[in-house]
Specification:
With 332 residues, the chain is mostly helical. It is 69% helix and 9% strand. It contains nine helices and three strands; from the N terminus they run H-H-H-H-H-H-H-E-E-H-E-H. Strands 1-2-3 form a three-stranded mixed beta sheet. Strand 2, helix 8 and strand 3 form a beta-alpha-beta unit. Helix 3 packs parallel to helix 5, helix 4 packs antiparallel against helix 5 and helix 5 packs antiparallel against helix 6. The longest helix is centred in the first third of the chain and has 46 residues.
Length: 332
């Protein structure tokens, strides 16, 4: 993460920056663990379901197998995306590679919708031509083991997401949350088919497909927001302003812009200082303001511009408001 360099040495801030770096290193390690776990579980599930289908000739297990194949391809893509996203900034990508995660999330959202469409077709076909399931004990054992293994992976991914806010891991976790519902539907179909209720299987699958499309659309929306540099939530913007206001030398703030790229929150703003303040003193104040912001948001990359309070200039918020009025207020 690139931040404004300090001219003066601040022991407390130096320690806080080291703590933030350590936190990022730990996040990177857990992101790698999560992607390796996802790929490993996907391969195990494919093997289990392939064996289960070969034993039972169950179309429901076959549908779950094909869904797992999609999950495996998405997990491998996610593994590569996280690897690139964690790469440090270089001469060609000075803002880093964080948006690789959003690209992966966007692609996975499309794949999830594709799997939902497949479930719809399979469900309609099963409704039109009901078929009894075979080898109940074998199929039930495979699907119960699948549920346990998938549930453990989802719990681990949730733990990682809570600490890293990774869009790619969140999208990957959605695959497996959907799998939990799909596998529950298969288990329910296996159980109810023993009682002669053959139509329950496709009804469960259609319900899963509806949930999948809804959840995938949320993932696509979040990834698109990051790729299009949507502002951080208003709560975080107010957090930045509150941090800046703690410095007694700052007379005002304007032209604040924020965005997220992977695990880094980028913050740009102008602070207003006394007109005749020496440059070195203005620079020191900027460093102190940056320290206040990064204390509140450890993963922030902050850029600060100093303006004399007496200088009147066109401000970004005024330009945005004027553009929205001209556009009829349709921009989001």
């Amino acid at each position: 993460m690139l931040v404004v360099n300090l001219v003066l040495f601040h022991p407390e801030r130096d320690k806080s920056m080291q703590d933030a770096v350590m936190t990022q290193q730990e996040q990177a390690q857990w992101l790698r663990f999560a992607t390796y776990a996802s790929v490993s579980v996907a391969l195990i599930l494919i093997s289990l379901k392939l064996w289960g289908y070969w034993q039972t000739q169950s179309m429901a297990i076959l549908a779950s197998l094909i869904d797992s194949l999609l999950d495996a391809s998405a997990s491998v893509a996610n593994l590569l995306a996280v690897r690139f996203a964690l790469a440090p900034a270089d001469a060609s990508h000075r803002f880093g590679h964080g948006k690789e995660e959003a690209i992966a999330g966007l692609g996975q959202g499309v794949l999830i919708i594709g799997s939902a469409v497949f479930l719809v077709f399979e469900s309609v076909g099963r409704l039109l031509e009901p078929r009894p399931l075979q080898a109940f004990e074998t199929g039930l054992g495979v699907m119960l083991f699948t549920l346990v293994l998938t549930g453990l992976l989802v719990l681990f991914q949730s733990w990682v997401i809570a600490r890293t806010q990774s869009a790619a891991i969140r999208a990957d976790s959605l695959h497996y949350r959907t799998d939990l519902l799909t596998n529950l539907a298969v288990v329910g179909a296996l159980l109810l088919s023993q009682l002669g209720w053959l139509g329950v299987d496709p009804v469960f699958a259609l319900s899963v497909a509806a949930y999948t499309v809804y959840a995938a659309w949320q993932i696509i929306g979040d990834s698109a927001d990051e790729l299009l540099d949507r502002e951080l939530p208003e709560e975080q913007r107010q957090q930045v302003l509150a941090a800046v206001s703690q410095h007694v030398e700052v007379r005002g703030v304007h032209d604040m812009r924020t965005r997220r790229s992977g695990r880094v929150d980028f913050v740009e703003l102008h602070i207003e200082l006394d007109d005749h303040l020496p440059l070195t003193e203005a620079h020191t104040i900027s460093d102190e303001v940056e320290a206040l912001i990064t204390a509140a948001m450890p993963n922030a990359d902050v850029i600060i511009h100093q303006d004399p309070v007496g200088v009147v200039e066109d401000q970004l918020d005024d330009k945005i408001a004027e553009a929205e009025r001209a556009d009829g207020g349709t921009q989001q």
